[in-house]
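Field reference: "sequence" (input) and "structure" (output). Example, Lipoprotein:
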Amino acid sequence: MIPYSRRGRSAAAVALSAAVSCLALAACSAEVPQPAALPTHAVTKPSPGPALSGDQQRTVDTAWTSFEKLNGIYLKAVQTGRYDWNKDATRRPLYRYAGGRYMALLERDLGLLSEQGLIRTGTPTVTLRRVVSVSATSIVVEACVDDAGTDTVNKKTRKSVAAPGQNKRYPVTLRAGLYPDSVWRWVDSHTDRAASC
C-alpha cells in the first residue's frame, strides 16, 4: 500500500513537488515548502538554548540518536526506492522513531517518490545546532541541513528532476514527543529554506 496517491497531477508538477519534498525530507523536514528563494537572512550563530540539567541533556542525546536512526532509515528508502509497507503501521521501519503527522508525511513522500520512479542520490549532513526547549514530554531542537552534493533523479534515466536554485543549507526546527511506551518519537518539523545556517 502506498499512501496518498497523487494521480491526476501533471508529471512535471509531481516531479517538482517530489524533488522539493525530497530535498526537504532528506533534511528531515516533512513539510513541502514553496520553491525557495535565495537566503534572505545573513548566516548567524543561533542564540544559545536553555541551560540543561544532566538528565535533560541525556534525554536530548537519546532523542537525537533516535533522530539519526530515523534519518538513516529514510535516506536508505529514498536512495533505494524500497520501503516495507507493512499493513500494521507499528511494524514499519519508521515507526520506532517517528509518529503522528511527521511519520505520515515522511511515508507520503516515500510513496510519491515510488509512484514517480524517483530516487535520491548523495547524503545530506544534518547537524544539531541548539536545543530550543525541553519538557517532560516534548523536545524542540534546531538543526542545520547541508544538502550540497545531493540530487533527486529519475531511477531509470538517472536524470535530475530537482528544481534549480534551491537553497542547499538551511535550518530545520524539529519536535519530538514522549509516547506512552516511553519512546521519544519525532513528530513535527519546520524547514526555513529562506534562511541559511
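The longest strand covers residues 125-134.
The chain is about 30% helix and 25% strand.
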